[in-house]
Amino acid sequence: MALGSRTIILSAVVIAALGGLGYIVFKPQPVSVDLHELTRSPMRQTVDADGKTRIRDVFEVSAPVSGMAQRSPVEVGDSVSEGVTVVAVVEPLDPGFLDARSRRQAEAAVEEAKASLQVAESNVRQAREELTYAKSRYERTKSLVEAGVSSLTQLEDLTQQQTLREAALEAAFLTRDMAQSALTRAEAALIEPGLDRNGGDGTDCCVPIMAPSDGVVLEVVNMSERPVQAGTRLLSIGQPGNLEIVSDILSSDAVSVRKGASVLIERWGGDDLLEGVVSEIEPSARTKVSALGIEEQRVDVMIDIVDEDAAEKGLGDGYAVFVRIVTWEGDDVLQAPLSALFRSDGGWAVFLVKDGAARQVEVSVGRRSGLVAEILSGVEEGAVVITHPSDKVSDGVSVIDRAAL
Protein backbone atom coordinates (compact mmCIF):
# COMPACT_ATOMS: atom_id res chain seq x y z
CA MET A 1 0.00 0.00 0.00
CA ALA A 2 2.86 2.35 0.91
CA LEU A 3 4.62 1.44 -2.34
CA GLY A 4 1.52 2.31 -4.37
CA SER A 5 1.12 5.69 -2.71
CA ARG A 6 4.77 6.50 -3.32
CA THR A 7 4.38 5.60 -6.97
CA ILE A 8 1.34 7.77 -7.34
CA ILE A 9 3.07 10.74 -5.74
CA LEU A 10 6.17 10.31 -7.89
CA SER A 11 4.04 10.02 -11.01
CA ALA A 12 2.13 13.15 -10.09
CA VAL A 13 5.36 15.05 -9.52
CA VAL A 14 6.76 13.89 -12.85
CA ILE A 15 3.56 14.80 -14.65
CA ALA A 16 3.51 18.25 -13.03
CA ALA A 17 7.14 18.81 -13.96
CA LEU A 18 6.52 17.75 -17.53
CA GLY A 19 3.46 19.95 -17.70
CA GLY A 20 5.36 22.96 -16.38
CA LEU A 21 8.18 22.31 -18.77
CA GLY A 22 5.74 22.01 -21.66
CA TYR A 23 4.04 25.26 -20.63
CA ILE A 24 7.37 27.03 -20.55
CA VAL A 25 8.43 25.57 -23.90
CA PHE A 26 5.16 26.12 -25.74
CA LYS A 27 4.10 29.38 -24.04
CA PRO A 28 3.79 32.23 -26.69
CA GLN A 29 6.77 34.58 -26.41
CA PRO A 30 6.22 38.35 -26.59
CA VAL A 31 7.11 39.87 -29.96
CA SER A 32 10.01 42.33 -29.90
CA VAL A 33 8.87 45.67 -31.36
CA ASP A 34 9.99 49.28 -31.68
CA LEU A 35 7.86 51.74 -29.74
CA HIS A 36 7.18 55.44 -30.13
CA GLU A 37 5.28 57.80 -27.86
CA LEU A 38 2.98 60.27 -29.63
CA THR A 39 3.60 63.94 -28.83
CA ARG A 40 2.43 67.34 -29.96
CA SER A 41 5.00 69.60 -31.60
CA PRO A 42 5.42 72.04 -34.50
CA MET A 43 5.01 70.46 -37.92
CA ARG A 44 5.86 71.62 -41.42
CA GLN A 45 4.68 70.28 -44.73
CA THR A 46 7.35 70.85 -47.35
CA VAL A 47 8.17 70.18 -50.97
CA ASP A 48 11.72 68.83 -51.08
CA ALA A 49 13.92 69.09 -54.15
CA ASP A 50 17.45 69.59 -55.36
CA GLY A 51 18.45 73.07 -56.46
CA LYS A 52 21.33 75.02 -57.94
CA THR A 53 22.54 78.52 -57.25
CA ARG A 54 23.00 81.08 -59.97
CA ILE A 55 23.78 84.78 -60.21
CA ARG A 56 20.53 86.63 -60.64
CA ASP A 57 21.57 89.20 -63.27
CA VAL A 58 24.20 87.97 -65.72
CA PHE A 59 25.25 90.28 -68.56
CA GLU A 60 26.36 88.52 -71.74
CA VAL A 61 28.77 90.59 -73.85
CA SER A 62 28.65 89.85 -77.59
CA ALA A 63 30.54 91.11 -80.63
CA PRO A 64 28.71 94.12 -82.16
CA VAL A 65 30.30 93.56 -85.59
CA SER A 66 31.93 90.74 -87.48
CA GLY A 67 35.69 90.82 -87.44
CA MET A 68 38.73 89.75 -85.43
CA ALA A 69 38.35 89.69 -81.65
CA GLN A 70 41.61 90.75 -80.04
CA ARG A 71 43.10 88.86 -77.10
CA SER A 72 40.82 89.41 -74.10
CA PRO A 73 41.97 92.36 -71.96
CA VAL A 74 40.26 90.84 -68.87
CA GLU A 75 40.34 87.45 -67.17
CA VAL A 76 37.88 85.47 -65.08
CA GLY A 77 37.60 87.03 -61.63
CA ASP A 78 38.60 90.55 -62.69
CA SER A 79 36.45 93.38 -61.32
CA VAL A 80 34.98 95.71 -63.95
CA SER A 81 33.19 99.08 -63.84
CA GLU A 82 30.22 100.04 -65.99
CA GLY A 83 31.20 102.18 -68.97
CA VAL A 84 34.83 102.39 -67.81
CA THR A 85 36.53 99.00 -68.15
CA VAL A 86 37.26 97.74 -71.67
CA VAL A 87 36.26 94.08 -71.61
CA ALA A 88 36.73 93.23 -75.30
CA VAL A 89 38.12 94.69 -78.52
CA VAL A 90 36.92 93.75 -82.00
CA GLU A 91 38.63 94.78 -85.23
CA PRO A 92 36.06 94.88 -88.06
CA LEU A 93 36.61 92.69 -91.09
CA ASP A 94 38.88 93.98 -93.87
CA PRO A 95 37.21 94.60 -97.24
CA GLY A 96 37.73 91.98 -99.90
CA PHE A 97 40.13 92.27 -102.85
CA LEU A 98 38.72 93.69 -106.09
CA ASP A 99 39.01 91.88 -109.39
CA ALA A 100 39.83 93.79 -112.57
CA ARG A 101 36.23 94.43 -113.60
CA SER A 102 35.13 95.49 -110.10
CA ARG A 103 38.08 97.86 -109.85
CA ARG A 104 37.30 99.46 -113.22
CA GLN A 105 33.66 99.90 -112.17
CA ALA A 106 34.67 101.40 -108.82
CA GLU A 107 37.12 103.82 -110.48
CA ALA A 108 34.48 104.87 -113.01
CA ALA A 109 32.02 105.46 -110.15
CA VAL A 110 34.61 107.73 -108.48
CA GLU A 111 35.08 109.77 -111.67
CA GLU A 112 31.33 110.04 -112.09
CA ALA A 113 30.95 111.22 -108.50
CA LYS A 114 33.71 113.82 -108.97
CA ALA A 115 31.97 115.16 -112.06
CA SER A 116 28.66 115.35 -110.21
CA LEU A 117 30.38 117.25 -107.41
CA GLN A 118 31.83 119.76 -109.90
CA VAL A 119 28.37 120.29 -111.40
CA ALA A 120 26.98 120.83 -107.92
CA GLU A 121 29.74 123.39 -107.16
CA SER A 122 28.86 125.22 -110.37
CA ASN A 123 25.17 125.27 -109.41
CA VAL A 124 26.11 126.71 -106.02
CA ARG A 125 28.09 129.52 -107.64
CA GLN A 126 25.29 130.24 -110.08
CA ALA A 127 22.67 130.29 -107.34
CA ARG A 128 24.85 132.61 -105.25
CA GLU A 129 25.30 135.07 -108.15
CA GLU A 130 21.60 135.07 -108.93
CA LEU A 131 20.80 135.75 -105.29
CA THR A 132 23.32 138.61 -105.20
CA TYR A 133 21.76 140.13 -108.34
CA ALA A 134 18.24 139.74 -106.92
CA LYS A 135 19.27 141.49 -103.69
CA SER A 136 20.83 144.43 -105.57
CA ARG A 137 17.71 144.92 -107.72
CA TYR A 138 15.61 144.80 -104.57
CA GLU A 139 17.68 147.47 -102.86
CA ARG A 140 17.56 149.78 -105.92
CA THR A 141 13.82 149.38 -106.36
CA LYS A 142 13.25 149.95 -102.66
CA SER A 143 15.12 153.27 -102.90
CA LEU A 144 13.04 154.29 -105.94
CA VAL A 145 9.81 153.38 -104.18
CA GLU A 146 10.81 155.51 -101.21
CA ALA A 147 11.53 158.38 -103.63
CA GLY A 148 8.15 157.89 -105.29
CA VAL A 149 9.64 157.01 -108.66
CA SER A 150 8.83 153.25 -108.78
CA SER A 151 5.65 151.38 -107.93
CA LEU A 152 5.09 149.17 -104.91
CA THR A 153 4.11 146.28 -107.20
CA GLN A 154 7.61 146.10 -108.67
CA LEU A 155 9.07 145.96 -105.14
CA GLU A 156 6.81 143.06 -104.24
CA ASP A 157 7.84 141.15 -107.39
CA LEU A 158 11.50 141.64 -106.58
CA THR A 159 10.92 140.52 -102.99
CA GLN A 160 9.44 137.28 -104.30
CA GLN A 161 12.35 136.76 -106.71
CA GLN A 162 14.84 137.28 -103.87
CA THR A 163 13.08 134.63 -101.76
CA LEU A 164 13.14 132.17 -104.67
CA ARG A 165 16.87 132.77 -105.21
CA GLU A 166 17.55 132.08 -101.50
CA ALA A 167 15.68 128.77 -101.76
CA ALA A 168 17.59 127.89 -104.93
CA LEU A 169 20.92 128.55 -103.19
CA GLU A 170 19.89 126.34 -100.27
CA ALA A 171 18.93 123.54 -102.68
CA ALA A 172 22.27 123.93 -104.45
CA PHE A 173 24.10 123.50 -101.16
CA LEU A 174 22.15 120.32 -100.42
CA THR A 175 22.85 118.96 -103.90
CA ARG A 176 26.56 119.62 -103.37
CA ASP A 177 26.46 117.74 -100.05
CA MET A 178 24.79 114.79 -101.77
CA ALA A 179 27.44 114.78 -104.47
CA GLN A 180 30.19 114.89 -101.84
CA SER A 181 28.66 111.90 -100.03
CA ALA A 182 28.36 109.98 -103.29
CA LEU A 183 32.07 110.64 -103.97
CA THR A 184 33.04 109.41 -100.48
CA ARG A 185 30.98 106.25 -100.99
CA ALA A 186 32.56 105.61 -104.37
CA GLU A 187 36.08 106.10 -102.99
CA ALA A 188 35.32 103.70 -100.10
CA ALA A 189 34.73 100.93 -102.64
CA LEU A 190 38.40 101.21 -103.62
CA ILE A 191 39.77 100.60 -100.11
CA GLU A 192 42.11 97.61 -100.14
CA PRO A 193 42.56 95.08 -97.30
CA GLY A 194 45.02 96.26 -94.64
CA LEU A 195 44.42 99.98 -95.28
CA ASP A 196 42.94 102.23 -92.61
CA ARG A 197 39.26 102.77 -93.29
CA ASN A 198 39.35 106.29 -91.85
CA GLY A 199 42.39 107.44 -93.77
CA GLY A 200 44.52 107.78 -90.63
CA ASP A 201 47.37 105.78 -89.17
CA GLY A 202 45.17 102.80 -88.29
CA THR A 203 45.16 103.29 -84.52
CA ASP A 204 41.37 103.86 -84.38
CA CYS A 205 40.37 100.88 -86.51
CA CYS A 206 39.05 98.72 -83.63
CA VAL A 207 35.80 98.74 -81.70
CA PRO A 208 36.28 98.75 -77.90
CA ILE A 209 33.49 97.21 -75.84
CA MET A 210 32.89 98.64 -72.37
CA ALA A 211 31.55 96.74 -69.37
CA PRO A 212 27.71 96.95 -69.36
CA SER A 213 27.56 96.74 -65.55
CA ASP A 214 29.67 96.75 -62.41
CA GLY A 215 30.67 93.28 -61.32
CA VAL A 216 33.13 90.47 -61.86
CA VAL A 217 34.06 88.59 -65.04
CA LEU A 218 32.40 85.19 -64.69
CA GLU A 219 33.49 83.62 -67.96
CA VAL A 220 35.67 84.42 -70.95
CA VAL A 221 34.70 82.28 -73.92
CA ASN A 222 38.18 82.43 -75.46
CA MET A 223 41.22 84.38 -74.31
CA SER A 224 43.03 84.21 -77.66
CA GLU A 225 42.57 86.31 -80.76
CA ARG A 226 40.04 84.79 -83.14
CA PRO A 227 37.56 85.69 -85.91
CA VAL A 228 33.99 86.27 -84.74
CA GLN A 229 30.62 86.97 -86.29
CA ALA A 230 28.32 89.73 -85.13
CA GLY A 231 26.43 88.47 -82.08
CA THR A 232 29.09 85.95 -80.99
CA ARG A 233 29.24 85.71 -77.19
CA LEU A 234 32.57 86.90 -75.83
CA LEU A 235 32.24 86.92 -72.03
CA SER A 236 29.77 87.22 -69.16
CA ILE A 237 29.70 89.61 -66.19
CA GLY A 238 27.80 89.41 -62.92
CA GLN A 239 27.89 90.11 -59.20
CA PRO A 240 28.81 86.97 -57.19
CA GLY A 241 26.94 88.22 -54.13
CA ASN A 242 23.65 88.57 -56.02
CA LEU A 243 22.67 84.90 -55.82
CA GLU A 244 19.39 83.06 -56.23
CA ILE A 245 18.44 79.39 -56.32
CA VAL A 246 16.55 77.65 -59.11
CA SER A 247 14.90 74.32 -58.34
CA ASP A 248 12.75 72.21 -60.62
CA ILE A 249 9.87 70.46 -58.87
CA LEU A 250 7.05 68.25 -60.04
CA SER A 251 4.08 70.16 -61.41
CA SER A 252 1.82 68.31 -58.94
CA ASP A 253 3.92 69.76 -56.09
CA ALA A 254 4.10 73.22 -57.65
CA VAL A 255 0.33 73.58 -57.25
CA SER A 256 0.78 73.92 -53.46
CA VAL A 257 3.75 76.32 -53.64
CA ARG A 258 3.01 80.02 -53.28
CA LYS A 259 5.12 83.08 -53.99
CA GLY A 260 6.64 84.33 -50.73
CA ALA A 261 6.73 80.87 -49.12
CA SER A 262 9.57 80.20 -46.67
CA VAL A 263 12.37 77.90 -47.80
CA LEU A 264 14.93 75.95 -45.78
CA ILE A 265 18.25 75.52 -47.60
CA GLU A 266 20.35 72.49 -46.67
CA ARG A 267 23.38 70.54 -47.96
CA TRP A 268 25.05 73.66 -49.35
CA GLY A 269 28.37 72.84 -47.69
CA GLY A 270 28.04 74.72 -44.41
CA ASP A 271 26.95 73.51 -41.00
CA ASP A 272 24.16 76.04 -40.48
CA LEU A 273 20.79 76.20 -42.20
CA LEU A 274 20.17 79.00 -44.71
CA GLU A 275 16.79 80.63 -45.19
CA GLY A 276 15.12 81.66 -48.42
CA VAL A 277 11.87 82.91 -49.92
CA VAL A 278 10.12 81.83 -53.12
CA SER A 279 10.42 84.81 -55.48
CA GLU A 280 8.98 83.41 -58.71
CA ILE A 281 7.25 80.33 -60.09
CA GLU A 282 7.50 79.67 -63.81
CA PRO A 283 4.04 79.85 -65.44
CA SER A 284 4.59 76.75 -67.58
CA ALA A 285 6.07 73.31 -67.02
CA ARG A 286 8.47 71.40 -69.21
CA THR A 287 8.88 67.69 -69.87
CA LYS A 288 11.95 66.10 -68.31
CA VAL A 289 12.99 62.44 -68.41
CA SER A 290 14.02 61.09 -65.01
CA ALA A 291 16.93 58.75 -64.32
CA LEU A 292 14.47 55.85 -64.54
CA GLY A 293 13.35 56.90 -68.01
CA ILE A 294 10.00 58.29 -66.85
CA GLU A 295 8.68 61.48 -68.40
CA GLU A 296 7.85 64.08 -65.75
CA GLN A 297 6.40 67.56 -65.88
CA ARG A 298 8.75 69.90 -64.06
CA VAL A 299 8.36 73.54 -63.02
CA ASP A 300 11.24 75.90 -62.19
CA VAL A 301 10.94 77.74 -58.88
CA MET A 302 13.24 80.71 -58.15
CA ILE A 303 14.27 81.28 -54.54
CA ASP A 304 15.86 84.39 -53.02
CA ILE A 305 18.45 83.73 -50.32
CA VAL A 306 17.55 85.72 -47.20
CA ASP A 307 21.01 85.42 -45.64
CA GLU A 308 22.93 88.38 -47.07
CA ASP A 309 26.29 86.85 -46.15
CA ALA A 310 25.73 83.60 -48.07
CA ALA A 311 28.45 84.51 -50.59
CA GLU A 312 30.84 85.37 -47.77
CA LYS A 313 30.21 81.93 -46.28
CA GLY A 314 31.48 80.38 -49.50
CA LEU A 315 28.31 79.88 -51.54
CA GLY A 316 28.95 80.60 -55.21
CA ASP A 317 27.47 80.41 -58.68
CA GLY A 318 26.37 76.96 -59.86
CA TYR A 319 26.59 75.30 -56.41
CA ALA A 320 24.31 72.36 -55.58
CA VAL A 321 21.87 72.74 -52.66
CA PHE A 322 18.84 70.95 -51.23
CA VAL A 323 15.71 73.00 -50.53
CA ARG A 324 12.58 72.41 -48.46
CA ILE A 325 9.76 74.71 -49.57
CA VAL A 326 7.24 75.18 -46.74
CA THR A 327 3.66 74.79 -47.98
CA TRP A 328 2.00 74.52 -44.54
CA GLU A 329 3.03 74.65 -40.90
CA GLY A 330 1.34 74.24 -37.50
CA ASP A 331 2.56 75.01 -33.98
CA ASP A 332 0.75 72.29 -31.98
CA VAL A 333 0.16 69.14 -34.02
CA LEU A 334 -0.25 65.54 -32.82
CA GLN A 335 2.14 63.52 -34.97
CA ALA A 336 2.85 59.84 -35.59
CA PRO A 337 5.66 58.25 -37.60
CA LEU A 338 4.60 57.13 -41.05
CA SER A 339 6.23 53.78 -40.20
CA ALA A 340 3.53 53.21 -37.56
CA LEU A 341 0.63 53.63 -40.01
CA PHE A 342 -0.82 50.86 -42.13
CA ARG A 343 -3.92 50.36 -44.24
CA SER A 344 -6.98 48.69 -42.74
CA ASP A 345 -10.39 48.40 -44.47
CA GLY A 346 -9.61 51.34 -46.73
CA GLY A 347 -8.51 53.57 -43.86
CA TRP A 348 -5.51 54.01 -41.62
CA ALA A 349 -4.70 52.22 -38.37
CA VAL A 350 -1.94 51.87 -35.79
CA PHE A 351 -1.02 49.33 -33.12
CA LEU A 352 -1.23 50.78 -29.62
CA VAL A 353 0.52 49.05 -26.71
CA LYS A 354 -1.78 48.51 -23.69
CA ASP A 355 -0.89 46.21 -20.77
CA GLY A 356 1.89 44.62 -22.79
CA ALA A 357 -0.33 43.72 -25.75
CA ALA A 358 -0.85 45.24 -29.20
CA ARG A 359 -4.25 46.79 -29.84
CA GLN A 360 -5.28 47.82 -33.36
CA VAL A 361 -6.91 51.26 -33.47
CA GLU A 362 -8.37 53.10 -36.45
CA VAL A 363 -7.03 56.66 -36.87
CA SER A 364 -7.77 59.65 -39.07
CA VAL A 365 -4.70 61.04 -40.83
CA GLY A 366 -4.27 64.66 -41.95
CA ARG A 367 -1.23 66.25 -43.51
CA ARG A 368 2.01 64.37 -44.06
CA SER A 369 5.54 65.70 -44.08
CA GLY A 370 8.74 63.78 -44.41
CA LEU A 371 8.59 60.83 -41.98
CA VAL A 372 5.59 61.94 -39.88
CA ALA A 373 1.86 62.42 -40.35
CA GLU A 374 -0.74 64.53 -38.58
CA ILE A 375 -3.20 62.49 -36.45
CA LEU A 376 -6.64 64.08 -36.38
CA SER A 377 -8.49 61.49 -34.28
CA GLY A 378 -8.32 57.93 -32.93
CA VAL A 379 -5.47 58.30 -30.42
CA GLU A 380 -4.41 60.85 -27.84
CA GLU A 381 -1.14 62.49 -26.90
CA GLY A 382 1.10 60.16 -24.88
CA ALA A 383 -0.15 56.97 -26.54
CA VAL A 384 2.57 54.43 -27.38
CA VAL A 385 2.46 52.97 -30.90
CA ILE A 386 4.44 50.27 -32.66
CA THR A 387 6.64 51.36 -35.54
CA HIS A 388 7.49 49.05 -38.41
CA PRO A 389 5.05 46.30 -37.24
CA SER A 390 5.91 42.91 -38.71
CA ASP A 391 3.46 40.18 -39.73
CA LYS A 392 3.90 38.66 -36.25
CA VAL A 393 2.09 41.62 -34.72
CA SER A 394 -1.70 41.40 -34.58
CA ASP A 395 -4.48 42.55 -32.32
CA GLY A 396 -3.97 41.07 -28.82
CA VAL A 397 -0.44 39.77 -29.36
CA SER A 398 1.95 40.27 -26.44
CA VAL A 399 4.80 42.60 -27.28
CA ILE A 400 7.95 43.82 -25.62
CA ASP A 401 10.06 46.88 -26.29
CA ARG A 402 13.12 45.89 -28.23
CA ALA A 403 15.10 48.67 -26.58
CA ALA A 404 14.49 47.10 -23.14
CA LEU A 405 16.03 43.76 -24.10
TrEMBL record:
It is found in: Cell envelope. InterPro entries: UPF0194_transport, YknX-like_C. Residues 333-399 form the YknX-like C-terminal permuted SH3-like domain. Residues 103-137 form a coiled coil. SUPFAM superfamilies: Outer membrane efflux proteins (OEP). It comes from the Bacteria. Keywords: Coiled coil, Membrane, Transmembrane, Transmembrane helix. This is HlyD family efflux transporter periplasmic adaptor subunit. It comes from Oricola cellulosilytica. The lineage of its organism: Bacteria, Pseudomonadati, Pseudomonadota, Alphaproteobacteria, Hyphomicrobiales.
